[in-house]
Amino acid sequence: MSAPAEGERIAKRIARAGLCSRRDAETWIRAGRVTVNGTLVLTPALVLSDEDRITVDGQPLPEVARPRMWRYHKPAGLVTTHRDPQGRPTVFQALPASLGRVVSVGRLDLTSEGLLLLTNTGALARRLELPATAWTRRYRVRAHGAVTPERLSVLAQGLTIGGVRYGPIEATLDRVQGANSWLTLSLKEGKNREIRRVLEHLGLTVNRLIRIAFGPFQLGTLAVGEVAPIPAKVVREQLGALLPE
Asked: Which residues are catalytic?
């Protein structure tokens, strides 16, 4: 087995082939399920060359899949995780098995709805989540309480709440419906529960939160619970240099 300094760790190679996460791959290796060039491997620290032959449970490792992406209309009531310690239903349990193993680009919390991007490539998901990518997330928000466009305008400068700094948010008041206000918010950071916290600071209580766009990708008319592949040409055009080699 060759182990060049510029090679790739075995757990990462297994994860890139789409069989499991890198953490699961490390567990499989320690459990004696993986061989390289016919020799049992028990350490996930092994570095591979392109010529090394890997098997998992006696089966050759699949070729590394080309990066693919899907749009998913997440319903409220699902957590965006592969395993939930509290036993709540997850996004990945709800997805069709035909997708194979996918990961999400960022998250939507339990009660949030709307566009969730999925990919078969963990490296791509991590790149798209980086603050440097600076993709705009756009949301439709229903919140209990009254607010004026002038009051919303303070969000454009960013806020510090409880010692946490939130970046600029573009917010518009779309309409008032009884005791609720419908808003459209656009932001780039997407900190945990950011929208709920900044609107609470303005005296509003969010009771519905729908992501309608993430970067260049739109929710559009995708039905709740529906998954739609993003054409490879569109992925190449929109992501360019962000795509892993």
From this structure: 109
